[in-house]
TrEMBL record:
A GO molecular function held by the record: D-cysteine desulfhydrase activity
Protein name (database record): Uncharacterized protein
Keyword list, A-Z: Pyridoxal phosphate
InterPro entries referenced in this protein's UniProt entry, alphabetically: ACCD_DCysDesulf
Cofactors demanded by this protein: pyridoxal 5'-phosphate
Amino acid sequence: MAAMVVSCAERGLKSHLLLRGEQPEILIGYNLISMLHGNAIFVPRSLYAKREEMLAKHADLVAGGSGSVVWLSDILEASLTTQISGKLNCEPLDVYKYAESLKRVVIVNEGGGDTVGLLGVICLVQYSSQNHVFGKEQAFKIVVDGGTGTTTIGLGLRAVCLG
């Protein structure tokens, strides 16, 4: 979430974040970053329980009567199915191209439990393996806070692919 909101802000894109739970008295960490770089709204857990419905309703409000909405996972799926080679492309999606040709508001669902999260982790390992970061020869340990297991799977898949 924090990476997404900062990335959007750097590109001049407005982000709306729906954060589960109550706003803490003192903002720190991810909550602070979210509030500084995006339009963050804390959503009661009872409403957040129906995540996809909540996201779609909020996106419709943001889009207004003249806009339209698409899920990032749909854009990514369309992008992946058009790739000819078997090589995973970790280049950033041309969001502006898709926003113009498809929709104006893009929904990014939470967590690494979907395609977007899995590919993000795979690309993180590829990035980390560059010589100017960690390289491929230097051993290092990664501590994973894994809820769904997708983060661990993504890390492992890319590590195996990179040898």
